[in-house]
Design brief:
By secondary structure, the chain is of the alpha+beta class. The chain folds into 5 domains: 158 residues; 149 residues, 2-Layer Sandwich (Beta-Lactamase), CATH 3.30.450; 153 residues, Beta-Lactamase (2-Layer Sandwich); 105 residues, PAS domain (Beta-Lactamase, 2-Layer Sandwich); 168 residues, Heat Shock Protein 90 (2-Layer Sandwich). Helix content is 51%, strand content 18%. The chain contains 25 helices and 24 strands. Strands 3-2-1-6-5-4 form a 6-stranded antiparallel beta sheet, with helices on both faces. A 6-stranded antiparallel beta sheet has the order 9-8-7-12-11-10, sandwiched between helices. The chain has a 5-stranded antiparallel beta sheet with strand order 14-13-17-16-15, with helices on both faces. Helix 20 crosses helix 25. It is elongated and about 215 Å long. The termini are far apart. About 3% of the residues have low confidence.
Length: 902
Amino acid sequence: MSKRNDLTTWLTAHRIDLSAPWADVISESASPLFGDQLDDDGAVATISSPAVSVDQLYDALVFAASGDYDTLNTRVHAITYSDDIRDQALNERMTRAFEFRRAFRTLLRRQVSDPTHTLEMFDEFDVLFEHLLGTLADGWAAHNAEVIREREFIAESLDAASAAADQRALQLKALNDISQRLSASLERSQLLDLVATSLHRLTGVVHIAVWMPVEGDANDLVATYTCGEDAELTQGMRIAKSSTQDLTCRAFSTGRIQFEMTPDPAPQGAWYREGCGVLALPMIMHDRAIGVVTLQDPNPVEQLRFQQDLAQGVISQAAIALQNAQLYTEVRTLNVELEQRVEERTRQLQDEKDRLATINEISTEVSSTLDLDTLLNTSLTVLASISQAEHASIMLVEQDDSSLLVTRAVYGVPPSPGNYIRFPLGSGIAGWVAQQRKGALVDDIGTDERWVSIPGGSLRKRQGSMIAVPLLMQGEVLGVISISHRDPGYFHEGHLRLLSACAGPIAIGINNANLFQMISAEAERRYELLDRQQTESSQIEAILQNLADGVIVCDLYGSVLMANQAAGSFLGRTIEDLLLWNLHDIITRYLGPRSPELPLAELLARPFDAREQRRIFISTTKVGTRMVSMTMGSVLKEDGQMLGALLVVRDITREIEADRMKTEFIGTMSHELRTPMTAIKGFTQLLAMGGLGPLNDTQREFVNTIHMNTERMIALINDVLDITKIESGSVDLEWRSLHMAEAISGVMSELQGMISAHDHELIISIPPGLPLVRADAHRLHQILFNLLSNAVKYTPKGGKISIQAHETNLANLPEHVRASVASDKRYAQMNIRDTGVGVARDDLSRIFDRFYRTENPLKIEAGGTGLGLSLVKPLVELLGGRIWVESTLGEGSTFSFILPAI
């Protein structure tokens, strides 16, 4: 044991020195150490060994030196398994082993000085070396035996593969031949027969059947073609697709191959041969089974399983051929259909060409004339010619009565009003077409319930066929065009389309002819109107130029359109100058600061007042030595449309002078009358007081009568004098601040007796904060006295009179009053309302005129001269105010006036 330990220790100690020669023993110089290697023929050997490193083999050598040979044996065998079987491989490795032995001995001699110990270690190493050589030889022999066995197996495999390749080549040749035959046919029946016969000849199985779905029956499969033993028994056999346990049906429904070596006969159909294995192969097209081929043979492994790929290849080729055949059939069918469609389309295009030619011919004829009769007869002639119709007519909607259709043209009959026949809209076939606005194709007139016989017409016409279409223009029915033939069913849809297409141009032509007639009549009427207008204009111009009053007419913008000679004479301008001016400028030039008295812009904007009466503005001015009156109003059409304004200029110099002389005469006469009236009044008062002695009752009555009439005469003279002063502008006003309540109180003290005598109810409403007014006390007293006395006198006994005063502003005034007052002032308003007889609407415009008294039941009882209200209005305006009245006949009146407030 000590020697082995010494060898083991020495080998371990000199690992580095011995590693290089030891590596030569196991190196790849002799043969590859790792992985596969090539044989003599260049083929890759299949023998492999685990990879062994130099360090691992040296460790195994050290273990063997200590007596553990297993590790060395295992790793040396691994090396020998990587060698080839050549003798040179073993010899080379043996030679290298001896070189390692010599290197060991040489190193041992140098390192160990004791010869005895050296010899002992030589002996010990030789034992180890002999074991190494034996292990190398044994490993080489075992490896060679294994290689020989493997090469013998490879040779046998190559022989079998060669035989299989030969058989495969024969099968591929047969498959190629079948494929060519399949691709050469496009008939379904031939293809299926070829599949059955080819498979039977190629595989040699006992029985083959080709199953296809039954045409027209989606539930069954039928054995279309069969080959083999008892093939005629299976031919034409049917099985239900719902038999899911049947191998044929299962292959069809799942689209997968079904193979059973010993199938259960019970669920199979009558097609199954007992004792046979079954291979059911579906024919797949577009991922769907279109049929099944079943192969049966008692030797399922040899005849079915080993030939499954071949059979599947044939069936796949058959499926492609069937698909091609189906596509060919579809293409052929499509070609037939396409030819039919081309033929039909050609016929339609020819019909369309004929129809367009007819429409073009009709359009040409229609556009060449505007005479309605010519147009209708020409259209009927063309339509009858193209359709071979025996009768044709056009009925139009009566212009005077749109509920009637009148026959305006008949084919072959000259136009004449005597041939016009009228039908109610909706009566007969033509009336139905006009009412429904769609065409009608009648195969047999004799059976159509819509037919209406023409009064006095021939019954022969109620036979044959007829077409009627409406003549439409922008959705409006102009009439109906119809054609007929003696033979029932003569017309078809093509005739209806033709007539419908032609109806459009004919309707356009009829509409154009109607428009031409209407335009011609309108042009003639307008020519007559223009001639008459020109005549009237000439007459109006002559009258205008010969008027004594001046007339100026302007448009909506004030531009002067017309002026006569008198206007130029009064204004000192020529007509040409006036036509170049604007009426705004003329008013401003001649009225100056008073131009607002003729507000042209306001008149053009609002020609009517609040009572829908035409507004008229009047002013006077002096032009040179003449006094002229300017009256301005609106020019309106009959429908009230504003055209412009009219200014009438009149020379009122003589009228002014005559009025002045009349005023002076009345004033002088009034003064002359007032003097004796004063004396008469004084003497009657003296007599009444008994200054000339006592009076009896009769005398006193006479004196009172004289006194009352004298008072009334003096009041009349005073009113006349006041009016004269107002007109002459010589009224003297004593302006001061007054309270309305004070003025009313003074008037009430005078009228209290009269109010009591009439038993009237009096209501006075004056707010505490009512502002003062700036006025003349005497004139305000006159205004209130006349208004209240009128209310008392024209209200039946037991009536009601109210006096109401309040402050107001511009917004609360009536529109016709608002336009004539200043907008920046405050006003005090007085309303005197009664429940009297009222004033009629027609009398309101004259209520403030002199000596005007309305007709009413109290006219005689009330008395008066009609001067009171004519005096009130100018007095109110002198004080800077305005007065107006609102009244309802039989219900009462309200007199309102305003005065500027302080």
